[in-house]
Amino acid sequence: MTLNTDFMKSIDKRLVYLFKGSVIIYVLYGFMIFHSDIPDGPFYFRRSEYFVDLLYAVLRFDGPQIAVSIDLIVGKGWFLPATSILLSPVRLLTDDPYIAKLYIYAVNILLHFFICLKLKKVLGLKTAIGFHVLTLLSPLYNVLGMSFIGEILAGKLFILLVIYTIDCTRKGLFFKFNFR
Description:
Elements: H1 5-10, H2 13-33, H3 41-59, H4 63-74, H5 82-93, H6 97-123, H7 125-136, H8 139-145, H9 151-171
Helix pairs in contact: 3-4, 3-5, 5-6, 6-7, 6-9
């Protein structure tokens, strides 16, 4: 089995060393904030169980239970279900909130390093390292990364959208359309 050499060449050794050091810092942050929670966290965790119930009801073709599950998900008002949907695979396996926190933290860390790789490709190594170091030194960024609040994930997806827009603009992909 061979590794993809083009991918391996695109990863700078400095980023690999920074990644290794960052993992240690992320583990330390994880130990410090593992048992704390943001007040909305249990709400999103409970709502993820309703998505699992909805999945089971859909698989059983149980129409009344589907309606009940949707009513439980929405509750008394508007609810943004992205975090609860993201937690649903973990809720299929376990009801432990600590495992779900580890899962959401791993998703945040992987998305963060994917942003760093895209920044290196589009804006250069210095920008990627600068983004990584600034976010690594921000405790709030890491505390919210282990909580069930979806704003950090949404912010990371927005950053990826901005990077993609910059990349497309530099390649001239937005200007190839003929609007006549």
